[in-house]
Amino acid sequence: MFHWLTGLRSRGFSIAITAALVLVTAPTAFAHTGPGVLPAPQVTTKVLNTFVVNITGDQPDGNPGDGLCEVDVAGRPCTLRAAIEEANQLGGGPHRIEFDIPGDGPHEIQPASPLPVIDVPVEIDGASQPIARCPSIGNAATLRIILDGRAAGSSNALTFAAGSDGSSVSGLVIRGWSGNGIKLESSNNLVTCNLIGVDVDGSADAGNSLQGIHVTGANNQIGGADASQRNVISGNGASGIYIQSPSATGNTVKGNYIGTDVSATSAIPNDDTGVRCHNADNNTIGGSEAGAGNVISGNGLFGVHLRTGSDLNQVLGNIIGLNASGTAAIPNFSTGVYVVGSGENKIGDYGAGNGNLISGNGGVGIYLLDDSNFNYILNNIIGLDASGSVALGNTQFGVLLDGSGGNTIGGPGNGNVITANNNDEIELRNSVANQIDSNRIGTNSAGTTIIASNGVGIVLDDSDVNLVLRNTIAGNSGGGIDVVTAAVRNTIYANHIYNNTGLGIDLGNNGVTPNDPGDSDTGDNQLQNYPILTIATESRVKGMLDTLPGDIDLHFYVNDTCDASGYGEGESYVGLHEFYVPGVTTLFSYFVPAGALQIGQYVTATATDSDGNTSEFSACLEVTCSSPDVDDDGDVDVNDIIAVATQWNAQTYNATYDLNCDNDIDILDVQIAAGAFGL
After folding, report:
1. Burial of 360 by CB count in 10 Å (0-12 exposed, 13-18 middle, 19+ buried)?
2. Does the pLDDT value for residue 542 go beyond 70?
3. How far apart are CA 432 and CA 609, in angstroms?
4. Chain-centre distance of CA 242, in angstroms?
């Protein structure tokens, strides 16, 4: 494992071993370079001492400040308490604490009272103990230094206070303390390769009473993308990691197992949340690079909780609710990611590798509540395994927004897969101006296979001015999209909605709502009337709309079959027709893009008024080869019969007059026109 000491040696620096004091050029406080990035050291001239702990005792240093870690017993050995006292008294730093306790161990250090608060830069390296090893890919850590707090009274195991910026702690088993395992009040610290709240084998609960790690400082890194940096932070009495206060910014949590055993195959719950941020901005949980994501599973409440005033944080690349391979559930008891009163956070991000796998949890996959505004939910898989093809649904909703606005759920090339959850896949309650875009809802991650879901695809409940577009919504046991509880001005278009048990779009969740004359009724999306389709050919769709005066958008869709209700869904999007309705029933004729419709398919359409209210789908209409209204005046009459007969007599082929699609203009076409006229 890399240590700052190793880095110093590799650059030709000298160090002081035990009693020797040598002036060296050494790193001190780190310069902040942004969330998720380990800052580069600033170089200055400092005194660096290395103290080697060689007994498990708890005696104090005999003469703090003399540069010697020695207690007043035979042989004057060095204890952990004495090493911390000596470093604090000397000041400056960074100082280094290594371990070389005789025997294979593990070796338990059990302080009889709180250890000194650390107020200078100190590197504590438990992995320096012979035989100790940090984890590697596929292998758990073999740690040999146990810091046990059962006899220490009310305290944290290690507290890094103001002045200790640039410290590190690694290779320790920290268990049984009445306070926190580690408290980071300072900044630019590194915490890696520890077992915090579990036993030395990482297989049983040995939790600290409060947080595993409590962070109030800035720019600290907990774990790392390399497997050797992984911490296991489980079994603690509150949260695994608690990032708290406005000063706690720029912290990064990477590559850890939080709430599980060392193999991340079974739960050792932190009693509260895996990672909680409270009034803390600009922190990163996970990351996009390989190995940066955490496994946050098995916790007693939430996986990740962004609480009150925690803004501009990022949750990226994590597994939340499953094992490390993403193949089996290790549920967090409640919600996977819970955001309350916090905004502009990213749960997933633009680009490959940034999304989270959020499945198997006991509540909602992602829950935004109480003015959690302008957040982004991007590129996540919610309800499936890591392959994106096996159902491992969250017990409640996939995504739930309650009283939250301006949020973005998906986008072109950055949509989420939200499938197989045990309630509605996406539900908005009293939430305005959100955008739901380009998600796959009810299918596998490739969009090629329907995976049965247990609710409605999207529910807009008492939620206004939302935009739903370009989503695939299929295979839900309810409808595709329900608009309920007087939700209005919700615009729905260009989605792929098919094979749902209920209606594709249902205003009021009560089945097909008949059009009313003049469209004067009100309710969900103002009960906007849908178009009446009269003719559908490969080249044109005709119909009429009775609605209030205004500019209208008609959106057309094609389906392989007609819905059992007779009011089709919208399997594939065809296009848009814009026109003005003066307040009376108005005819329309839409010229279809070449090749968009095939004979035997079914066309449907929706109408969206100038306020953004989208209707239910129209009745479906089968596509035929051509229209008997050949002169396109909105009426089949004698003129149409004469026009077809004239074309027959001319013996010149024109597909407009080929009403039976046999590539010939003959008496059969004249008869079809006459039949449409009523003869």
Report:
1. buried
2. yes
3. 18
4. 19
Beta bridge partners of 105: none
Please list, in sequence order, all residues whose beta carbon lies within 8 angstroms of the beta carbon of residue 570, skipping any fewer than 6 positions away.
495, 496, 497, 498, 504, 555, 557, 559, 604, 606, 617
Residue 206 DSSP label: -
First-to-last alpha carbon distance for the chain, in angstroms, is 91
Radius of gyration of the chain (CA): 33
CB 441 within 8 A of CB 457: yes
Q: Return d(Cα 27, Cα 30) in angstroms, integer.
A: 8
**What are the backbone dihedrals phi and psi of residue 192, each rounded to the nearest 5 degrees, phi first?**
-140, 155
Give the three-state DSSP class for 417: strand
Phi/psi at 80 (5° precision): -65, -40
Tokens of 653: 């082929």
* % the chain with pLDDT above 70: 93
β-pairing, 602-608 vs 458-461, is: unpaired
Q: What is the per-residue pLDDT across 128-146, written as a single tens digit (0 to 9) for each?
A: 999 999 999 988 999 999 9
Q: Measured between alpha carbons, how far is residue 412 from residues 353, 471, 552 in Å? A: 16, 10, 25
Q: Which of 492, 489, 663 is nearest to 569 (CA)?
A: 492
Token pair recorded at residue 620: 């479906």
Q: Which amino acid is at 344?
A: E
Query: How many helices (H) and strands (E) would you count in the chain?
Result: 4, 52
Q: Please name the residue that has the structure tokens 């200078």.
A: 120
Query: How far is 467 from 586, CA to CA, in rounded Å?
Result: 26
In the block, tokens 């046999």 appear at: 662
Q: How many CB atoms are located within 10 Å of the residue 125 CB? A: 25
Residue position matching structure tokens 């039976």:
660
∠ CA 291-297-301, nearest 5°, is: 140
- Lookup: tokens for 65: 């400040």
List Cβ neighbours of 603 (8 Å cut-off, separation of 6 or more).
533, 536, 541, 556, 557, 558, 559, 568, 574, 597, 620, 621, 622, 623
Confidence grade of residue 232 (pLDDT, cut at 50, 70, 90): very high
Closest listed residue to residue 96, CA positions, set 34, 33, 9, 11: 9
Peptide linkage before 60 cis (omega within 30 of 0): no
Sheet holding 602-608, edge to edge: 572-581, 550-559, 602-608, 621-622
Would strands 435-437 and 408-409 be described as parallel, antiparallel, or unpaired? parallel
Are 240 and 277 in contact by the 8 Å Cβ rule? The answer is no
CA–CA distances in Å: residue 549 to residues 218, 519, 609, 634: 58, 10, 9, 20
Q: Give me the torsion for CA of 535, 540, 543, 547, rounded to 10°.
A: 160
With 0-12 / 13-18 / 19 or more C-beta atoms within 10 angstroms meaning exposed / middle / buried, residue 591 is exposed
Q: Which residue has the tokens 């449907």?
A: 604
Question: Residue 427 pairs with which residues in a beta bridge?
Answer: 400, 459
The pair of structure tokens assigned to 224 is: 């790392």
**CA–CA gap between residue 76 and residue 149 (Å, rounded):** 24
Indicate the pTM of the whole model: 0.89
